[in-house]
């Protein structure tokens, strides 16, 4: 049966079918990964990538199909059994216990040492810190996960998997919230692991990474495996076409003519705002900025430099310790979320499923969440059901959200589709200002383009957009003006046509600054 | 008896600590299962079954230690039932717990009545440690505390150490706050939940045994008189922490004792009012705790009451 010359594949999957109620997540998928390669699994949002990976990790049991690891047929009953076959996984929705520290999360489930007293802990913390440094993943080992930024959680989640030294490592969108620098470090680590004989499977929506780091590429579309080839036989453009089955939508950004002068009045103005962060540190330091109507202002910066607080202050989720906010020429004291929504400020938060939506409710209710009191949707407190359903259906259609029905709980949707739904809700309210925090995080190529077009659309309707993102390409592509945030201060301002990635990168890391910031030292 | 030579403070402390013992044991039981994510509203029922088991066995065997063992078994049996209902059948945890209490109330009164008020000839001895007795003021208090008091303190401390200093405890904490993450890290979620619910229920059974062996001389229906429900509240006051549970239980033991004492001195206060005291205190303290901690995470296990199902998202 076994041919000696043929080395078995590290992973071999045959005709896997997995359904969730009405949804066929993977449809007769077959997939092979050679030992010792970095294999990229690409696909649009909802294509079934996470489902396939969860099956490999024993989290989901397939309805039918065969799974072989190192040539041996296996049927995992739990992630524990997969781990015993030396498989590790980084989850797209981080699998971290929020109340525990990074340390506890990393050591959870590992068999070593039943007694975990102070000495043992001390030794382990040291070990983890030095290993984390080696991998280029920085995080506070003894900090509780609920106090961490999204990026820090991602780094812990990756470290947790690497720490287990598994032979097969599965990474589901590990780089969607990492900075370019961190992503580079991660790929360097992965290449090193590959050289020691480990097998790596990963997903990402960033095609550039795929081209320079991966050996082999497989593409899924709508639950099916549609292509698989060595990365040397393809290029970014070709990949994009294969992913979508058609040419991707172009992002059209119309330059404003030089003659059209800036509107005289600004829409939003922040004056010397100070604010505290999660750990009581000074997150914003006399930060001032303004946004004009009809303008997209991009805020570039490495995660954790005050972006979260900036967004929360503008949207009323947090109050500044000092400084002033002016909106449409009026001062705002003691803002509240409701107050900010009422005056026309909308928000696409960083953590969509926690602060953005109610997971167990369906699309209709989530879309209505901010607008339910409007006459269009309810009358004297009674919801207009069939009308709201039609309205929701048309939004789902217009924004190209993939869901089996408008009454399907949103937590069951793929990450990308949740994001589209959230954006649709915020834009449909026709706000004067949209604060978008990483709006395309985790979105596929097509969806990213349509989100960019939606934002540009707002701009042409004279609405203001504050785009907070770590993705420099995105910022360079659609902003009218770029601000760089570093340690809670704006350290640079650029015109996109005149700035380069490298230049902005220097400001993001604090190596350069345009303004006099003596306090920094 | 030399008891009369002690001052009122010492008497009060002894009475409060003794009254606290069943509350503490039941609270610890509740903490265990709730830390694993399973709400236990069957505590009252488990105490009753534990009490009736201890009662019957002590009548037959005259052995308090055998009685204790059977109370543990009786409690565990109900714990296994609760775990089966909540984890395997995924029924609503509130309903399952209430159901168990109702069932156990009926069963225990049926079993207990058939012994027509016979009195068990058993007595839990006091712990005699000579060098402890020499401590001024406290020495005398210590010499009047029975074995169960010491056992309950010991269990609380063991649980504290186990929960916060061992691998097992890490898994338990992880389980209550993020069963999906624990599952992904290779923790056997259901096995832990079963185990914790059963051990917790055994402690509730032990609490019941303490009541019958130390306090009431004979069986009477509903002899727990709502202590199980107070324990449910104590689990919350103690913020799911075994050491806090000791203090909370003693505080409530004090209220219970004060109720009796006031009755002795002021006969015209209606007895119903005094009986109401512990429950009234429960409500007041719950409100106070809630208000004081309104801006803090309350320590409640995040997945409490939500049965974990692996392939279900969110
Ligand atoms: N646990 C689940 N319960 C119900 N439906 C699910 C579940 N997991 C996935 N699905 C559905 O299966 C389909 C595939 O989802 P999956 O998460 O695998 O997509 P994906 O390719 O990872 O997308 P993304 O790029 O957005 O992460 C989606 O339609 C999703 O709604
Ligand atoms: Mg996914």
Biggest interface, CB < 8 A = A-B, 36 and 26 residues
Structural class of chain A: alpha/beta
Number of helices of chain B: 13
Number of strands of chain A: 22
Biggest sheet of chain A, open or closed, and with what strands and sense?
6 strands, mixed
The stretches of 5 or more residues of chain B where confidence is low (pLDDT under 50) are none
How many beta strands in the DSSP annotation of chain B?
Answer: 0
Question: What's a quick, concise take on this entry?
Answer:
With 521 residues, chain A is of the alpha/beta class. Chain A has 17 helices and 22 strands.
Write up what this structure looks like.
The complex is a heterodimer of chains A (521) and B (314). Chain A is α/β, with parallel strands linked by helices and 521 residues long. Chain A folds into 4 domains: 1-86 and 168-248, 3-Layer(aba) Sandwich (Rossmann fold); 96-165, no CATH class; 266-344 and 433-521, P-loop containing nucleotide triphosphate hydrolases (Rossmann fold); 356-430, no CATH class. Helices cover 32% and strands 24% of the residues of chain A. Chain A is built from 17 helices and 22 strands. Chain A has helices at 49-56, 79-84, 102-107, 118-135, 150-163, 180-195, 207-213, 236-244, 307-314, 337-342, 352-356, 363-368, 385-398, 415-428, 445-460, 472-478, 501-508; strands spanning 11-20, 23-33, 38-43, 64-69, 72-74, 87-90, 168-172, 199-203, 216-221, 224-230, 268-276, 282-291, 296-300, 322-327, 330-332, 345-348, 378-379, 382-383, 433-437, 464-469, 481-486, 489-494. In chain A, strands 6-7-8-3-9-10 form a 6-stranded mixed beta sheet, with helices on both faces. A 6-stranded mixed beta sheet of chain A has the order 16-19-20-13-21-22, with helices on both faces. A 4-stranded antiparallel beta sheet of chain A has the order 2-1-4-5, covered by helices on one side. In chain A, β1 and β2 (23-33) form a beta hairpin. In chain A, α14 runs parallel beside α15. The longest helix of chain A is centred in the N-terminal third of the chain and has 18 residues, at 118-135. Chain B is mostly helical and 314 residues long. Chain B has a single domain (18-116, 146-307), classed as ABC transporter involved in vitamin B12 uptake, BtuC, CATH 1.10.3470. Chain B is built from 13 helices and no strands. The radius of gyration of chain B is 20 Å and the shape is globular. The interface between A and B is medium-sized, with 36 and 26 residues. Bound molecules: adenosine-5'-triphosphate and magnesium ion (MG).
